[in-house]
Amino acid sequence: MKLGNYSIRGRLALFTGLAVGALCIVFSLVLLVALNRMATRSLTDEVTAVGELTAYYVDRGELSNPLPPIPQDLVRPVQVVDPHGRVVAATKDLQGRPAMAHFLPRSPRRVASQVVCDSILTGGRCHVVVAQQVYRDGNWTIYSAAPALPFYVYPGVIAILVVGTAILTLTVVCGARRNVTSSLRPVEAIRSQLDHIRSTNPGRRVPVPTAKDEIYRLARSVNQTLDRLESVLDQQRRFCSDASHELRTPITAMRTQLEVALMAPEDTDVPQLCDAVLPSIERLQAIASDLQTLTRLDTGVPGDRQKVDLCELITMELGASNGKVVQRLLPGVTVLGDRSGLGRLVGNLVQNAQRHASSTVTVTLRRGNGDPRFPLGIAEVEVLDDGDGIAADQRETVFRRFTRLDTARSRVAGGVGLGLPIARQIAESHGGTLTIQDSDRGARFVLRLPLHS
């Protein structure tokens, strides 16, 4: 079964259980090895004591076969081998048997031990054999032995470790699951609240826990995202409403003109009808073109970035415009951007200025500095008209979509309220700004773009 089928609580509990179980197993193995070594060392010392007791009799010449009695708590198989390698004495259980081992202790220690398997010792088990030498007319060797201990030392030890591992693992798993459940309870509340948020009630927000942990930061980020989504939804609703209103006006005019022509086709002058309908079609075409531009800008699709000479670009845009325009252009001011987009930006500003100017529009291009946002310097374009100007409290309003301060005059002039929003969005997509500054007369639009090195 895949882990993805489990909840977070289940996966964390399973991982914790496996980790704790593995650690307990490793700890148990290390403990068993340590206990085995300690018990084997103790057993070896006991076997060595038996050999030393026998060596005492050999050294005193009191050797007898079978060997003299050994205390009950030290009874072990013992053999005495003479300097010629013959077994000359042994305990009763090894009478008439060959030597249990053939290794000798290395001088000067005079004592050595090994684990010997497949020897004459009975039981089919490996034995710990200790060899000791005593000098008496040659080197006599005393072998004493005891069955080797299993790796778990005693059955009760491994039983305790198995039960302890199971209890500890289950305890940790239950504790981890309970702790994760408690920690994820705010997440469940957030999920439940998100399920109830729809486009019809975007004002609802998820609960923010009091503990300032990761879930607290998650809840705040979710609420901030919901704030932005609500703002976008409101903007989209206003946009759709304004766009439908703007489209309805020329469509209604065209429908009325066509219906009148159909009611009296014999009195209809086709060229005159076309002249009447064409302005509405041009208006629809302008709205569609602006909406397409806004869609591209909203999606953040970048245009081709290239080195653009603003003096040359502005000169070309002003050459295609109507009306009196005073040019104060500094040559050699270059930026990096989309040439067609920057041309659209300048054209929109100039058209807006001409639409509201009394007689003259002044376009100025210069270099600027002192703004920390533009470390390489500023390319500053100023478009100034000599019209009535824009009130300070309305300078941001004109950058909203489908906004016209003078609706009737703008519609006659052909404006649909999208030129300035498009211009600002193009400026921001190039890392610049577009604002309205104070002036003695008229409206003064200031475009700032980062210079290209």
UniProtKB/TrEMBL annotation:
The chain crosses the membrane at residues 12-35, 152-176. GO terms for molecular function: phosphorelay sensor kinase activity. Its main location: membrane. It comes from Acrocarpospora phusangensis. Residues 242-453 form the Histidine kinase domain. It holds the Pfam family HATPase_c. It is found in: Cell membrane. It catalyses: ATP + protein L-histidine = ADP + protein N-phospho-L-histidine. Residues 181-234 form the HAMP domain. Its EC number is 2.7.13.3. The keyword Oxidoreductase does not apply. GO terms for cellular component: plasma membrane. Keywords: Kinase, Membrane, Phosphoprotein, Transferase, Transmembrane, Transmembrane helix, Two-component regulatory system. This is histidine kinase. It comes from the Bacteria. InterPro entries: HAMP_dom, HATPase_C_sf, HATPase_dom, His_kinase_dom, HisK_dim/P_dom, HisK_dim/P_sf, Sig_transdc_His_kin-like_C, TCS_sensor_his_kinase.
